[in-house]
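**User:**
Everyone, produce one record:

**Assistant:**
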Amino acid sequence: MSTPAGNLTIVVATDLNNGIGINNTLPWRLPEDLAHFKRTTSGHAILMGRKTFESIGRPLPNRRNIVITRNTGWQHEGVETAASLQAAAALTGAEPAFVIGGAQIYAEALPLVNRLIVTRIEQAFDCDAFFPALEADAWKETARESYRSETSGFNYAFVTYERR
């Protein structure tokens, strides 16, 4: 097993079935989660796969955008590239960094991180991309803030997990 990287945190929004997306888009509209994501990641590096970057369509402002891609010719203005998650993490050194997707990158990052910040949407959606199931004995919930979205009508919670 890999050694956890203390500077990496996963940030993800999931539905009841750990769904995170469909057709490379979010299956829900939850402005409160987008605001939470912005507050959490602003001023820090964000690591993402190429398809996640392309679904966003532009570098996110006030963040160091690092895209993980095996395509050595891929580039985009305002974005750094890395050939692997480990190479992307190495670019950040000891600075806090956030892994923001997609499914393959989350699966690779899960053994490496000590903290997860999960927006848990209490509804099921039609998804074709999923966040890996968490091993209950590996993680403990350390914080939870529950809300109901005035915009969407969804119940959701911001949940923090720390590695045991």
